[in-house]
Amino acid sequence: MKEVKLNNGIAMPQLGFGVWQVEDDKVTAAVEKALAVGYRSIDTAKVYENEAGVGKALKQSGIPREDIFLTTKVWNSDQGYEQTLKAYDESLKRLGTDYVDLYLIHWPTPEYDTYVDTYKALEKLYKDGTVRAIGVCNFESEHLERLFNECEIKPVLNQVECHPYFAQKPLKQFCAEHDIYVEAWSPLDQGGEVLQDEAVRTIADAHGKSPAQVVLRWHLQQQTIVIPKSVTPSRIEENYDVFDFVLTDEEMATIDGLDRGARRGPHPNDMNKR
Q1: What is the Cα–Cα distance from 54 to 40, expressed in whole angstroms?
Q2: Alpha-carbon distance 222 to 79, whole Å?
């Protein structure tokens, strides 16, 4: 497993396992399978309502807690300084751990203008040593610039929708200039349309790999952190098997050229759901 070094010096696996939309009674088996395959980074969130199941899987795996990189997130309705501190304690209880490796703000929810106070709570958790790293999800460059101006600690990463049909090139460049990693959610495109793309399938055939493996490899070679999710054991294995081949510069350029600005999820400025 390749690791990346975040801007605060800690290492994070570049390929992780996401559990969005996985029900709590199914997530334990999925995470246990992922850990058995070799994943060591697990990404969950309060709003996924499966933190308890994730925690159960971590405990039952027998893998030392320090060998697993665990991420969770504060939801929109818990934003604000004191509310965030309380929400974090509640997440720890559900997860059955006394710290998480990465704590993220799930959305900026600009309509409520609370993300700066929320981030300051994350800074306190980081300074207190109960979180090893802090960051954000779905932040546009203007939201990040406000954190730079009003807060002390730079986010280590920005988790955003990113796939070949929505490559996020300007935001990626902005984050790179500020030493912030981009982490891709829905890296295989919601609905999987990109996996049917003729260009992707041609590259997959050339390498004896699946279209999903090619797309994940594209992310990795772009230095993007990636968290594919699946509850199917064979797919969990397949998504992990992406370290034994390399895309050529020409193949990378072909996939880069597929970008069509096809955002599937909400725009961060419009996502103010509590």
Answers
A1: 13
A2: 32
Active site residue 240: no
What distance in Å separates the CA atoms of residue 25 and residue 20, rounded to the nearest whole number? 13
Q: Taking the model in full, what pTM does it have?
A: 0.96
Given the residues 48, 88, 103, 240, select the one marked as catalytic.
48
pLDDT tens track of the chain, all 274 residues? 799 999 999 999 999 999 998 999 999 999 999 999 999 999 999 999 999 999 999 999 999 999 999 999 999 999 999 999 999 999 999 999 999 999 999 999 999 999 999 999 999 999 999 999 999 999 999 999 999 999 999 999 999 999 999 999 999 999 999 999 999 999 999 888 999 999 999 999 999 999 999 999 999 999 999 999 999 999 999 999 999 999 999 999 999 999 999 999 999 999 999 8
